[in-house]
């Protein structure tokens, strides 16, 4: 940042809710289907159709409000009127002066608190594409509209203008995304548009000076774009002011290729939306019991999940900076349960974390779908020295392809191991006899030592033992 | 009489513009008068003494009308697009849009 200047940043994040159906009708809420296949009279704005609010969308919106420490209040829906073909009915149903969630906050990982002004419900618009030589809106000959997305439930989360650097803005979006995913409200896929960010940016010369004139930046499709666009926009405004000109309040479009923002419209032609109360919907009034029930379904939030993994690394002397990055990755991708279960099963926390952050993370969808037991078995094979790191990665890739399975069997299929079940019991007995202290602790209920013994047996049999069979034998001996 | 300032010709021109209605000078004069008397009628309510009367947010005192998140059948795409004046690539083809979405 140019010395002598401070940025002021507020963010508006639109998040598509992970429901089965749209906000006001029963059309499927699915990304990527054939155009105009998920449409009905309601989302096509046909006369006589009436909206009916989706209960699951409401509960996910309340979950977001809870996760962001908002007050959840009685709310109403309004019509926001405008002529643009992305809504067939010429208005968008949104919450206006009585939003569902207000006055919350989000804490960044470094402890900086960003206020949340509101998080309200509204419907998404259809998708327009512009035909013609440029592919852009300017110079297009005509436009094409797909209404599959029209009516998909959204929550718009509006922050207070609390952020002062592009890094804070990036951290906010990253943390918010993690919260949205953890709360089950969204898949957080910025690349599919299920999370979209607009940034309000202004500059001022001192931290206690009044806010400067702001510009709103649209078309920010990644956390990286967000940071670049904010830096660019702040520099543009500083240059204007330093050359004696004034910043004009306007909406600007981020051009990722050119690395700059361009004016879309100024405040003089700001839209007059003529909001009025949606007459076809009744007020939404969540009572305390409903709010509590939704809160009870909320899982652990990312900050707590990160702390849990940091705790697992305490045994090995605490998390290094690199491991903290791995922890962030694993929690962002929702893979931390895999690490926790692997460590509970006896895998070292460092290995479990590294394998999850580096390999499982390459296909997070497949990893989340994986049976944690299969993952544990794979890591035990590697921990026991029966599979090299390279082999373990190959087996994991195959587990992803097959959607699960027995890692030992896959390793055998790949010719990594020649497993047999000969003298398993005897080998287990030798391992137990040789380590009476550990056996005593295992018998006393320290289940983590099952991993220790499995590792010994794996080592002794050069991978011929089956992890599940060893576990079963250990459990049998313990009685 | 209590109530908002009387409707001007500029107000009517602005509202017509928002609704994409192209009004002639004569129509502007005509509708300014007509719309003003409609609003005057509504303004009569504002002149009533409503102290102690509860606001009515909705004709029926009903809240939380919800449906389960269960898919319902959609319309047939061929039938839907068959109603449209212009279609391309299974999408509605619409005139060139000036400016980005609001």
Topology of this structure?
The complex is a heterodimer of chains A (479) and B (102).
Chain A lengths: L5 E11 L36 E2 H13 L3 E2 L5 E4 L9 E4 L6 E7 L5 E11 L3 E5 L10 E5 L6 E7 L6 H17 L12 E10 L10 E6 L2 H20 L7 E6 L4 E7 L9 E2 L10 H10 L4 H11 L8 H12 L3 H9 L4 H10 L5 H6 L2 H12 L5 H14 L4 H7 L10 H11 L1 H8 L5 H12 L6 H12 L1
Parallel strand pairs in A: 12-13
Antiparallel strand pairs in A: 1-10, 1-11, 3-6, 4-5, 4-15, 6-7, 7-10, 8-9, 11-12, 13-14
Helix pairs in contact in A: 1-4, 2-3, 5-6, 5-7, 6-8, 7-8, 7-10, 10-11, 13-15, 14-15, 15-16
Chain B lengths: L8 H10 L6 H22 L19 E2 L9 H6 L4 E2 L2 E5 L7
Antiparallel strand pairs in B: 2-3
What are its keywords?
heterodimer, A: 479 residues, 3-stranded antiparallel beta sheet, 16 helices, B: 102 residues, mainly alpha, Histone, subunit A, two-stranded antiparallel ribbon, 3 strands, 37% helix
The main β sheet of chain B shows up as: 2 strands, antiparallel
Q: Into which percent range does the helicity of residues of chain B fall?
A: 25-40%
Strand content of chain A: 15-25%
Structural class call of chain B reads: mainly alpha
The proportion of residues in beta strands of chain B is 5-15%
**CATH-level-4 superfamily name of the domain at 9-46 in chain B:** Glu-tRNAGln amidotransferase C subunit, N-terminal domain
What gyration radius of chain B follows from the Cα positions, in whole Å? 23 Å
Largest sheet entry of chain A? 9 strands, mixed
């Amino acid at each position: 940042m140019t010395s002598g200047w401070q940025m002021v940043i507020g963010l508006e994040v639109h998040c598509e809710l992970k429901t089965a159906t749209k906000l006001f009708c029963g059309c499927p809420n699915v990304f990527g289907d054939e155009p105009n296949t998920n449409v009905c009279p309601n989302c096509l704005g046909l006369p006589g159709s009436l909206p009916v609010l989706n209960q699951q969308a409401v509960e996910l919106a309340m979950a977001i409000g809870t996760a962001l420490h908002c007050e959840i209040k009685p709310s109403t829906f309004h019509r926001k009127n405008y002529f643009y073909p992305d809504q067939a009915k010429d208005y968008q149903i949104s919450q206006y002066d009585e939003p569902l969630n207000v006055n919350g906050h989000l804490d960044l990982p470094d402890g900086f608190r960003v206020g949340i002004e509101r998080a309200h419900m509204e419907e998404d618009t259809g998708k327009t594409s512009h035909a013609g030589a440029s592919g852009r809106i300017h110079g297009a000959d005509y436009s094409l509209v797909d209404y599959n997305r029209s009516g998909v439930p959204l929550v718009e989360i509006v922050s207070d203008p609390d952020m002062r650097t592009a890094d804070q803005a990036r951290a906010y979006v990253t943390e918010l995304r993690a919260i949205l995913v953890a709360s089950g409200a969204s898949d957080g896929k910025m690349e599919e548009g299920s999370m979209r960010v607009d940034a309000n940016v202004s500059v001022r010369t001192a931290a206690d000076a009044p806010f400067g004139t702001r510009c709103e930046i649209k078309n920010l499709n990644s956390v990286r774009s967000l940071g670049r666009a904010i830096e660019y926009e702040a520099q543009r405004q500083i240059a204007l002011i330093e050359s004696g000109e004034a910043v004009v309040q306007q909406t600007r479009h981020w051009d990722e290729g050119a690395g700059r923002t361009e004016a879309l419209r100024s405040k003089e032609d700001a839209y007059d939306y003529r909001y009025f109360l949606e007459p076809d919907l009744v007020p939404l009034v969540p009572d305390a019991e409903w709010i509590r029930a939704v809160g009870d379904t909320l899982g652990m939030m990312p900050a707590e999940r990160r702390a849990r993994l940091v705790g697992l690394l305490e045994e090995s002397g605490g998390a290094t900076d690199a491991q903290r990055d791995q922890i962030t990755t694993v929690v962002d991708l929702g893979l931390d349960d895999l690490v926790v279960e692997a460590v509970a099963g006896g895998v070292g926390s460092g290995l479990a974390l590294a394998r999850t952050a580096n390999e499982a993370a390459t296909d997070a969808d497949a990893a989340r779908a994986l049976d944690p037991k299969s993952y544990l078995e794979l890591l035990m094979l590697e921990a026991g020295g029966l599979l090299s790191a390279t082999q373990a990665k190959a087996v994991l890739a195959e587990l992803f392809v097959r959607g699960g399975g027995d890692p030992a069997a896959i390793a055998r299929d790949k010719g990594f191991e020649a497993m047999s079940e000969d003298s398993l019991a005897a080998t287990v007995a030798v391992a137990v006899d040789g380590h009476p202290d550990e056996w005593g602790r295992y018998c006393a209920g320290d289940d983590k030592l099952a991993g220790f013994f499995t590792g010994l047996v794996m080592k002794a049999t050069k991978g011929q033992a089956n992890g599940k069979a060893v576990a079963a034998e250990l459990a049998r001996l313990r009685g | 009489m209590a109530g908002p300032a009387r409707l001007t010709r500029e107000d009517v021109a602005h509202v017509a513009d928002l609704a994409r209605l192209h009004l002639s000078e004569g129509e502007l004069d005509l509708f300014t008068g007509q719309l003003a008397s409609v609003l005057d009628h509504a303004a009569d309510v504002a002149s009533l003494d409503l102290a102690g009367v509860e606001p009515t947010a909705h004709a029926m005192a009903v809240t939380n009308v919800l449906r389960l998140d269960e898919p319902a059948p959609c319309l047939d795409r061929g039938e839907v697009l068959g109603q449209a004046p212009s279609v391309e690539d299974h999408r509605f083809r619409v005139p060139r849009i000036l400016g980005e979405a609001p």
